[in-house]
């Protein structure tokens, strides 16, 4: 061996040369074997040492020589076979070249590549497979088809791996090969087919081996052959176990089947999945496929088709049995989670079915451990959770059999609770589970099931009763051996669908006593209050009872005991059911049972147990309602005393049931029942001991027979004087009579209202409570009677009646649930009028009632009542004015604390959300309301009123709205006083802005409001300064408004104006006296006159001199302005003119002005003369010249001047008649002349003047004196003048007269 070691290099070179270049295949193959032997002898290191691996790689890459490539592959094959896993590292390195060789153009090379690949795969270890497989799988994704083909061929060769490696790689290989079958290149497809056949060729299971062509066709064309393949697999009987290659071909087909839409295909696929786990040689071979199959089985488990779900559930169970729980750690948690799903009943049902199979597979211990959680979830707060876990109990009996039977006692309460669940799905699940329990355990667990079902029949919940009857039916059907599905027609149940043999079978199994108890219970619930329970009970009865009359006779003792026990039950429904059953019994057996039933019931009223006495009353009602009228007549002697006794029972519930019994008796006995029972109850009401129970007895019969009983009761109860108990009785009976009282309102209500003012406090309280009850029990129709009655009450002459009616109106509107919006307008109008009532308590009651009526009207409807409220306030004001005569009018109701609170929402809502017209109405109405409100009351709400008004005034609304708001604000300023201090800046700014409005009415009212507001201000100079600045700009209309405002400010706060501002104002106003616009001149003159009150002597003198000079100027407007100013000064401070040194000059100017060619100048002069005359008469000055000048004016050509002079003389006569009488000789003829004037206004003024100058109304002597001076008047005409009223009705009376 040593010598060979020395020749190793040459030996290896010769072998490689021969293997790559020899012409003959045999020599090349022999050289390959020799090379493998040499390498094995010289150890693996020789591959690198002698460059063997590099030479092989060069040979594979030699594209010029096919022999080189083939020889290299032969060497590769032999080395793999001889060296085994030692050669594996070189295999990984050579793999890309081997892949290329599969697509070689020379057939011999390709065949050599296949042989080399087969040898390589057979020797691969598990680690080698992991290294090789990713490269091959990646090759399948290559874009070159040859690479894909080579990778497929190598993957096919992997079928020759060792068994352990084969099971490891096939789950990854076969799905990829299946995908290759749909490749676009035919050669790649063909390679895929060949590769799959190679996989099939190594299958050891003979049954699967025979089916390989079919399986391959299913893999190749799944759409057409999957279903057929599954059918063949299910038909095949497996004797041998399934190996890993078999699984590799089966699983893709089964996986495809699970995903099919067809129901049969999914069922078959799921069935095969279940079977596979028991047929595999080694269960661990299935593990690689679990991740693929289990998600699809889960999807099939929640399939809409129940059969499919069942197969999938069994498949899960088989997987657990075959492979063990540890393989599926997440399966049970997933099933439990799906049981709680909110998605659908189908998913929960599938999960329940699957879990039942899995639990059966996991065994008894695991089930015992998990059952408490399942039962606890049956009462979970979520309906879906309850539904899922109750559905589980439907499948557990089938899957677990006898194991589950041991847990019935623990599970049954959960089922019964589920039967009463509020959710229909949960109830259905519980009932379905109950049916399954009965089906599986009726014979083996009867003593356990029957008591639970019997208890359910007497449950308070109708759903439990219905389900229990159905379950009892199933149980009896099972015992009797009948299906219970017979269709029963017809109303008579004398003959049922059962046979005698079935009846005997029930007796044999249950025993006669238990059978009688069960049938008695079924018969009773045939009369259940729930229709579905009745229908279920009737079905069970007719199915298991052959002859009803005979059966009833057999069970009569037990039935009566059951009925009486139920009539005494604490459950009202159970008592009612028993009563109805008793009624049906009477209808069926009639006179045969009445003689025994009625005495038993009468005797039952003596039972100390109140529940049993109540049950007797219910039973009596049913017996009387079911028996014929002629049948009852013979028992009246017992029935009437029994019911009468029950109506006076000490227990409320007994009396209620007795009332129902009385109603039934009344149908048969008519007036006899009333005549024999009602008088007794009325007499009992007079006894202190029995009055309360007797009253309640009356309430009970009244509740059922209102129309018949009321006429007998009311006359006695409303008889005056009303006692406290009778008032209480009226209230108590009203609660029961309800709308039936409507026709008796006129009888009851006046009596109660008067009693509400009774001297006895108890009578007051009970009458008030009774009246409140009556107004609340009236329904919509009764309102038409109640409202007129209440309105009559508030208009009654008695204060107590008005007060009580007003209170009830308020109570009705606050507490009634009726729709009273239509009644609100009349009530509001009436109650506002009542605010001027003479009784203070009535006023307060009316105000409170009005508040409640307004509170009941929806906010958006309030503005519609503005006009109504205005009219009502006006009516109340007129009413109060007539009563007080001349005193400033304030409504008593609007002098209360918070009196305006209910009114404000009406007007504020109108101001905020109403139309322009509504806003105007609201503002005017608010002003009218405030006008009759006391100052103290107004101050409480002045802030919430004023704010919105200012905001609206600042917006762009029509002038009518602004004018109305300004008017209201003026009233608020006059009454609110200092309470408006916070709004002073805003109001002042707003008013000044409104002075420039385009509308005269807005400007005028803003000027008036600003004047009154100035009285509240402490800083007047800035305001006056602003007004004076406004006079220097703007049109004449604005100037007039500003002048009016200035006049008002000076009048209310002139003392606070500084001399500098006063001087500036006087200068500016003097200029405006020469304005062309009459209104501006007139307003400027008035402003100067008002300002003159606060001028010192120097300022006054300067002003007079200026006016005297202006009075002689050529421009008549200037002259007119000067005289208007003299007139204004003579009104506001005549003393400054009369005591002025220039007074003679003033009189001369006035005298000259009477001759002016412009009549406005003459009229202004006349007015000034009149005012000066009034002052002189009042303070004893010289008057002759002034009187002469007025007489001269009375002869003026202008009717206005003449009328003005007469008005001035009349005013003077009113001030000091005796002083004026000294001039009667010259006044008389002048007045006489004007009495014959051609102008009617002048004649009227003359008549009024004559009446006052000659004192005509004081007697005949004065008339005679007048006749002497009125020479042109006859005595008759003078006497006619004497009949005129003293007070002038002249609508255009002068300022002087108003001052007088």
SSE blueprint:
Layout: H1 2-6, H2 8-21, H3 25-42, H4 46-49, H5 52-61, H6 66-83, H7 88-101, H8 107-123, H9 126-139, H10 145-157, H11 163-180, H12 186-201, H13 206-210, H14 212-220, H15 222-235, H16 244-259, H17 263-279, H18 287-301, H19 306-323, H20 331-339, H21 345-362, H22 364-377, H23 383-400, H24 402-405, H25 408-419, H26 424-441, H27 446-457, H28 462-480, H29 500-510, H30 512-525, H31 531-544, H32 548-567, H33 572-589, H34 594-604, H35 610-626, H36 629-633, H37 636-647, H38 652-669, H39 671-685, H40 691-704, H41 706-717, H42 724-737, H43 745-755, H44 761-777, H45 780-794, H46 799-815, H47 824-833, H48 840-856, H49 866-884, H50 904-913, H51 916-931, H52 935-954, H53 959-976, H54 984-994, H55 1000-1014, H56 1021-1031, H57 1036-1053, H58 1059-1072, H59 1078-1091, H60 1097-1110, H61 1116-1132, H62 1134-1138, H63 1143-1153, H64 1159-1179, H65 1184-1193, H66 1199-1215, H67 1217-1220, H68 1224-1235, H69 1240-1253, H70 1260-1269, H71 1275-1282, H72 1295-1299
Helix pairs in contact: 2-3, 2-6, 3-6, 5-6, 5-7, 6-7, 6-8, 7-8, 7-10, 9-10, 9-11, 10-12, 11-12, 11-16, 12-14, 14-15, 14-16, 15-16, 15-17, 16-17, 16-18, 17-19, 18-19, 19-21, 20-21, 21-23, 23-25, 23-26, 25-26, 25-27, 25-28, 26-28, 27-28, 28-31, 29-30, 30-31, 30-32, 32-33, 32-35, 33-35, ...
């Amino acid at each position: 061996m040593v010598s060979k070691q020395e020749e190793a290099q040459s030996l290896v070179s010769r072998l490689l040369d021969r293997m790559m270049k020899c012409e003959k295949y045999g020599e090349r193959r022999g050289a390959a074997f020799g090379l493998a032997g040499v390498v094995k002898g010289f150890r693996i290191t020789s591959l690198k040492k002698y460059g063997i691996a590099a030479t092989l790689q060069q040979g594979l890459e030699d594209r010029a020589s096919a022999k080189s490539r083939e020889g290299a592959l032969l060497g590769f094959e032999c080395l793999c076979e001889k060296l085994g896993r030692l050669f594996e590292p070189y295999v990984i390195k050579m793999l890309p070249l081997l892949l290329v060789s599969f697509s070689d153009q020379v057939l011999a090379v390709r065949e050599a590549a296949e042989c080399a690949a087969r040898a390589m795969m057979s020797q691969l270890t598990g680690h080698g497979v992991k290294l090789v497989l990713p490269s091959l799988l990646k090759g399948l994704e290559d874009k070159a088809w040859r690479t894909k083909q080579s990778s497929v061929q190598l993957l096919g060769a992997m079928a020759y791996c060792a068994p352990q490696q084969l099971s490891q790689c096939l789950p990854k290989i076969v799905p990829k090969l299946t995908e290759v079958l749909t490749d676009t290149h035919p050669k790649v497809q063909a390679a895929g087919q060949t590769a799959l056949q190679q996989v099939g060729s190594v299958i050891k299971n003979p049954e699967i081996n025979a089916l390989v062509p079919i399986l391959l066709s299913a893999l190749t064309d799944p759409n057409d052959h999957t279903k057929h393949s599954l059918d063949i697999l299910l038909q095949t009987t497996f004797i041998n176990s399934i190996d890993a290659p078999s699984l590799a071909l089966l699983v893709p087909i089964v996986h495809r089947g699970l995903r099919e839409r067809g129901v049969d295909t999914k069922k078959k696929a799921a069935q095969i999945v279940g079977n596979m786990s028991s047929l595999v040689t080694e269960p661990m071979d299935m593990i690689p496929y679990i991740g693929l199959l289990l998600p699809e089985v889960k999807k099939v488990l929640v399939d809409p088709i129940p059969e499919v779900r069942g197969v999938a559930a069994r498949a899960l169970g088989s997987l657990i049995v075959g492979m063990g729980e540890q393989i599926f750690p997440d399966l049970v948690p997933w099933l439990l989670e799906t049981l709680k799903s909110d998605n659908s009943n189908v998913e929960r049902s599938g999960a329940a079915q699957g879990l039942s199979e899995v639990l059966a597979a996991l065994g008894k211990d695991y089930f015992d451990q998990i059952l408490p959680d399942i039962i606890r979830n049956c009462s979970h707060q979520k309906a879906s959770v309850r539904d899922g876990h109750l559905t589980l109990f439907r499948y557990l009996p089938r899957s677990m059999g006898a194991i589950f039977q041991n847990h019935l006692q623990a599970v049954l309460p959960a089922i019964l609770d589920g039967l009463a669940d509020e959710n229909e799905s949960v109830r259905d699940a519980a009932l379905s589970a109950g049916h399954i329990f009965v089906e599986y355990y009726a014979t083996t667990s009867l003593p356990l099931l029957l008591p639970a079902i019997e208890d359910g029949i007497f449950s308070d919940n109708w759903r439990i009763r219905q389900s229990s009857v159905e379950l009892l039916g199933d149980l009896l059907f099972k015992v009797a051996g009948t299906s219970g599905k017979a269709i029963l027609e017809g109303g008579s149940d004398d003959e049922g669908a059962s046979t005698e043999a079935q009846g005997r079978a029930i007796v044999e199994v249950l025993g006669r006593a238990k059978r009688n108890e069960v049938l008695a219970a079924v018969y009773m619930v045939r009369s259940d209050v729930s229709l579905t329970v009745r229908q279920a009970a009737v079905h069970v009865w007719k199915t298991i009872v052959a002859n009803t009359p005979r059966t009833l006779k057999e069970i009569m003792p037990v039935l009566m005991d059951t009925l009486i026990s139920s009539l005494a039950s604490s459950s009202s429904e159970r008592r009612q059911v028993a009563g109805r059953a008793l009624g049906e019994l009477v209808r069926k057996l009639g006179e045969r049972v009445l003689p025994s039933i009625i005495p038993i019931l009468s005797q039952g009223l003596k039972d100390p147990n109140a529940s049993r006495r109540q049950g007797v009353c219910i039973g009596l009602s049913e017996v009387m309602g079911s028996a014929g009228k002629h049948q009852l007549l013979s028992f009246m002697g017992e029935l009437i005393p029994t019911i009468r006794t029950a109506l006076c029972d000490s227990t409320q519930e007994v009396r209620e049931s007795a009332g129902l019994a009385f109603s039934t008796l009344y149908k048969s006995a008519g007036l006899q029942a009333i005549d024999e029972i009602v008088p007794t109850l009325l007499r009992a009401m007079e006894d202190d001991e029995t009055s309360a129970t007797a009253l309640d007895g009356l309430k009970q019969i009244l509740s059922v027979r209102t129309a018949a009983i009321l006429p007998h009761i009311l006359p006695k109860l409303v008889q005056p004087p009303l006692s406290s108990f009778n008032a209480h009785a009226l209230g108590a009976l009203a609660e029961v009579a309800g709308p039936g009282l409507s026709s008796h309102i006129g009888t009851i209500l006046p009596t109660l209202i008067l009693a509400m003012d009774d001297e006895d406090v108890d009578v007051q309280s009970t009458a008030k409570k009774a009246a409140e009850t009556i107004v609340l029990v009236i329904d919509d129709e009764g309102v038409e009677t109640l409202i007129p009655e209440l309105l009559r009450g508030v208009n009654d002459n008695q204060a107590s009646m008005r007060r009580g009616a007003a209170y009830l109106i308020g109570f009705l509107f606050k507490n009634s649930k009726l729709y009273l919006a239509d009644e609100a307008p009349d009530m509001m109008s009436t109650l506002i009028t009542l605010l001027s009532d003479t009784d203070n308590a009535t006023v307060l009651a009316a105000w409170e009632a009005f508040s409640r009526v307004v509170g009941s009207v929806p906010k958006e409807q309030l503005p519609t009542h503005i006009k109504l409220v205005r009219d009502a306030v006006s009516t109340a004001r007129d009413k109060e004015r007539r009563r007080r005569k001349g005193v400033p009018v304030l409504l008593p109701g609007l002098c209360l604390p918070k009196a305006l609170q209910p009114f404000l929402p009406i007007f504020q809502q109108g101001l905020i959300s109403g139309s322009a017209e509504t806003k105007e109405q609201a503002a005017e109405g608010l002003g009218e309301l405030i006008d009759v409100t006391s100052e103290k009351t107004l101050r409480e709400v002045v802030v919430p009123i004023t704010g919105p008004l200012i905001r609206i005034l600042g917006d762009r609304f029509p002038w009518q709205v602004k004018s109305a708001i300004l008017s209201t604000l003026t009233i608020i300023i006059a009454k609110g006083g200092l309470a408006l201090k916070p709004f002073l800046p805003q109001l002042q700014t707003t008013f000044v802005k409104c002075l420039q409005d385009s509308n005269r009415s807005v400007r005028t009212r803003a000027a008036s409001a600003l004047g009154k507001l100035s009285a509240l201000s402490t800083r007047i100079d800035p305001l006056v300064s602003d007004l004076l600045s406004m006079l220097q700009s703007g049109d004449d209309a604005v100037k007039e408004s500003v002048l009016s405002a200035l006049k008002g400010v000076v009048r209310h706060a002139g003392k606070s104006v500084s001399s500098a501002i006063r001087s500036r104002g006087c200068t500016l106003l003097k200029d405006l006296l020469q304005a062309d616009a009459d209104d501006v001149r007139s307003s400027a003159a008035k402003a100067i006159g008002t300002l003159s009150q606060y001028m010192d002597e120097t300022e006054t003198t300067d002003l007079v001199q200026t006016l005297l000079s202006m009075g002689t100027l050529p421009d008549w407007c200037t002259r007119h302005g000067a005289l208007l100013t003299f007139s204004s000064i003579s009104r506001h401070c005549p003393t400054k003119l009369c005591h002025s040194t220039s007074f003679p000059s003033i009189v001369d100017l006035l005298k000259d002005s009477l001759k002016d060619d412009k009549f406005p100048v003459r009229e202004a002069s006349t007015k000034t003369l009149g005012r000066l005359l009034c002052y002189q008469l009042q303070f004893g000055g010289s008057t002759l010249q002034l009187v002469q000048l007025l007489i001269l004016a009375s002869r003026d050509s202008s009717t206005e001047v003449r009328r003005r002079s007469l008005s001035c003389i009349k005013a003077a006569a009113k001030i000091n008649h005796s002083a004026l009488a000294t001039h009667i000789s010259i006044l008389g003829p002048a007045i006489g002349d004007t009495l014959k004037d051609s102008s009617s206004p002048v004649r009227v003024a003359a008549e009024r003047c004559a009446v006052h100058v000659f004192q005509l109304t004081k007697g005949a002597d004065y008339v005679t004196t007048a006749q002497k001076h009125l020479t042109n008047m006859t005595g008759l005409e003078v006497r006619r003048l004497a009949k005129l009223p003293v007070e002038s009705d002249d609508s255009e009376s002068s300022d002087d007269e108003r001052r007088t």
